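Quick one, tokens below. Sequence please?
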């Protein structure tokens, strides 16, 4: 699919209790010069550092009443989308600050290591149940088209220099923003 978006911005007046902002980015995995799995892992770590529940940014926006809950996100590496969303009464301010934060390329190794270890721990924990093993197998098939014995090695080989290299290609060029406001 082409990475260009049909609409950059749209406001919808509908029956919602609170204003919601959806911020989506289209990308090509080939732009990251990495495998799907590697790009997914590094993008996941990047988003956790920048806007995750425990990030300074997320906490600050809640303290300033710019957002009402944590910023949510998902990475759809199959269709090559990143979706970000938040509840806010100040959509313009939220979007402005979010974009500024997403342009940040100043990562420190300490934060990276914290989330790298969390990612690996979550990965290992998944093997403690049949459901976890099935999730691993289905995600491997989705990401790679096969179950590959080298997957575990790739999962554990996450490193800071490669992280910086991969996420340096992240950009906001192909974005689409939807703001849903209450009809009252």
């Amino acid at each position: 699919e082409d990475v260009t978006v049909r609409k950059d911005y749209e406001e919808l007046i509908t029956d919602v209790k609170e204003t919601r902002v959806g911020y989506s980015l289209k990308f090509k995995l080939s732009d990251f010069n990495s495998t799907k799995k590697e790009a997914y892992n590094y993008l996941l770590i990047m988003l956790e550092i920048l806007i995750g529940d425990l990030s300074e940014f997320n906490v600050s926006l809640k303290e300033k009443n710019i957002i009402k809950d944590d910023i949510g996100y998902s990475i759809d590496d199959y269709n090559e989308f990143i979706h970000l969303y938040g509840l806010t009464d100040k959509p313009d301010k939220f979007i402005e600050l979010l974009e500024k934060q997403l342009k940040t390329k100043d990562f420190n190794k300490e934060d990276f290591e914290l989330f790298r270890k969390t990612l690996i721990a979550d990965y290992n924990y998944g093997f403690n149940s049949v459901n976890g093993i099935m999730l691993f197998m289905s995600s491997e098939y989705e990401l790679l088209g096969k179950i590959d014995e080298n997957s575990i090695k790739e999962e554990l080989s996450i490193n800071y220099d490669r992280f910086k290299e991969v996420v340096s290609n992240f950009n906001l060029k192909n974005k689409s923003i939807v703001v849903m406001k209450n009809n009252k």
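The beta strands are 9-14, 20-26, 72-76, 81-87, 175-182. The longest helix spans residues 109-125.
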